[in-house]
Amino acid sequence: MSVPEQDPPTLPALRALMRAEAAALCASLPPRAGRFGLRLDRHADADPPACPDAVAQWVRLHLANDHWCGDLLANGHEALPFADDAFAIVWVHHALQARVQVRALLREAARVTEPGGLLVLGGVHPLSIWSPWLAWHQRAATHREHLHLPAELVRTLGGMGLRMEKLLRYGSFLPRCTQGDAPNAFLGGGYLLVARKHADAVIPLRPMRMRAAPPLHAGFAPHAHRDCA
């Protein structure tokens, strides 16, 4: 008996895993981290942004036919249409699993993250049971999901000036529509990587205290006589 191919966002178990990722993200982000946040989604019908207390406003983009769509429209092969250091939080939500240039996308995500801000990566862990399950559901698909090891992403981000602050697993061990409430499941189906962008190093100059020169006496030495004209 053949099972019809399903697009990943329509799989109830995968949608439940994404909700578990949002819960793990909310537990990892500080409140009021900044004014703006950017969310880069793999699919258009991903759940609404979580963590409303983390930033005042989320900007959402998703991939569609090599283009970024959503709040803005941009070419997926070009730079993100944002200024440098624009967002306090950048959440790459399963977008690395698309057919993208991973280093280029990470470089752009790091560029638009403000110094001291957070870059968050989330997706299906390639060493979990979810990986062959997802491949089986996409066995006849033209564009399959590409999964990445978190350790490789940590090394890539390190070369871009970001320091890993947290790496955890979330979700259930087996693909299912209900997920556990624990934000850190040792063998969960998904991973969440939180990295912080280094702030520009500014070394304050310590003012040097100048020693006062000894006062000069303009008088004559003792027992000296002034010649008369």
Observed structural traits:
229 residues; Rossmann fold; 8-stranded mixed sheet; globular; disordered N terminus
**What's the number of structural domains?**
1
Q: Which stretches are poorly predicted, pLDDT < 50 over at least 5 residues?
A: 1-6, 201-205
Examine the secondary-structure arrangement and name the CATH architecture: 3-Layer(aba) Sandwich
Distance between the termini: 130 Å
Shape: globular
CATH topology: Rossmann fold
What string gives the helices and strands in order?
Answer: HEEEEEHEHHEE
Classify the helix fraction into a percent range.
10-25%
- Classified by CATH, the class is Alpha Beta
Name of the CATH homologous superfamily: Vaccinia Virus protein VP39
- Quaternary status of these chains? single chain
> Biggest β-sheet, characterized?
8 strands, mixed
Spatial order of the strands forming the largest sheet: 4-3-2-1-5-6-8-7
Number of helices: 4
Beta-strand content bin: 25-35%
Count the beta strands.
Answer: 8
Structure overview:
- With 229 residues, the chain is of the alpha/beta class.
- Helices cover 20% and strands 26% of the residues.
- The protein has one domain: Vaccinia Virus protein VP39 (Rossmann fold, 3-Layer(aba) Sandwich).
- It is built from four helices and eight strands, in the order H-E-E-E-E-E-H-E-H-H-E-E.
- 34% of the residues are buried.
